[in-house]
Specification:
Layout: H1 21-31, E1 38-43, E2 51-56, E3 65-69, H2 77-88, E4 97-101, H3 106-111, H4 132-142, E5 149-156, E6 163-168, H5 177-184, E7 195-196, E8 199-200, E9 205-206, H6 220-228, E10 231-238, H7 243-262
Parallel strand pairs: 3-4, 3-5, 5-10, 6-9
Antiparallel strand pairs: 1-2, 2-4, 6-10, 7-8
Bound molecules: zinc ion.
Length: 263
């Protein structure tokens, strides 16, 4: 039974603690080397801070390939913190090739706001591709193979608990959602609303069946489903809880998804 309670801080937006992004990215680059992680800086601006960190696990010869991304919304610090923990504490199981973008919106994350420095919501730009960050991200993705699964870490400042979107091809069952919710439910409350963001939800699980690609404000997940994968999970931690609870929720969700992938 989870006893974590809402903090009541999030009035009109995320009002919780932030992370030291540059310290975390520096640690990821320095300390993950010993474990064989390869790091790349994908520059989208003139200064050294205007770059996306990309990391690839030592072994990318494994048959199963998983992409993990976070920090596309700068007011969702637990996402980058969770990815850093998974890599730095060696919490990702072997036997899979990992491709990781720990923070897709560094200018927003440094200021603690959802949008990038120019005011764009990057997670609505994967169709129009107007922002340098998304263009840079897509250029790297083009050079990468297809993935068995893509995982996109998010937080929701209004949610009462954890939930996720599971995107699949039509007539394909959602095999990840329930095991993930069951495991995350042990460390963090689950969102029990019957409708989340206007979509029918079943105990924290949203599995859209309509033709969700008929929009021009594509989030990252839509690009993945169109071009890079047949199975995609958007994981949403409730950001009105302690940061460590949300990090634990997200790391548990990723680890469970990996376990299901490995079978
Ligand atoms: Zn988000």
């Amino acid at each position: 039974m989870v006893t974590a309670n809402r903090l009541g801080k999030n009035k009109g937006g995320y009002r919780g603690e932030s992370i030291d992004l540059d310290n975390i990215l520096g640690q990821l680059e320095d300390q993950s080397k010993a474990e064989g992680w390869k790091t790349e800086h994908l520059h989208f601006g003139k200064t050294s801070r205007e770059s996306l960190l990309f990391q690839e696990s030592r072994d990318t010869h494994h048959q199963k390939r998983v992409l993990i991304s976070g920090g596309i919304h700068g007011d969702e610090p637990a996402t980058t913190a969770a990815i850093a923990q998974l890599i730095l504490k060696d919490e990702l199981r072997g036997g899979i090739s990992y491709y990781v973008f720990p923070c897709l919106n560094p200018t927003g994350m440094r200021r603690g706001v959802r949008e990038n420095a120019e005011g764009f919501d990057l997670n609505r730009d994967y169709f129009k591709k107007q922002t340098k960050e998304v263009q840079t991200h897509l250029r790297k993705l083009e050079a990468l193979p297809r993935f068995d699964l893509t995982l996109h870490l998010h937080e929701d400042w209004e949610a009462d608990g954890f939930y996720l979107y599971e995107l699949t091809l039509e007539n394909t069952p959602a095999i990840y959602g329930r095991p993930i919710i069951d495991q995350v439910g042990k460390v963090c409350p689950v969102e029990l609303a019957k409708k989340i963001e206007g979509m029918p939800a079943d105990r924290g699980l949203i599995h859209p069946r309509h033709r969700y690609l008929d929009r021009d404000d594509w989030p990252e997940a839509f690009h993945m489903m169109r071009h890079k994968t047949d199975h995609c999970l958007t994981l949403e931690a409730p950001s009105d809880f302690e940061l460590n609870v949300r990090v634990k929720a997200l790391t548990t969700a990723v680890q469970t998804a990996i376990a299901v992938t490995l079978g």
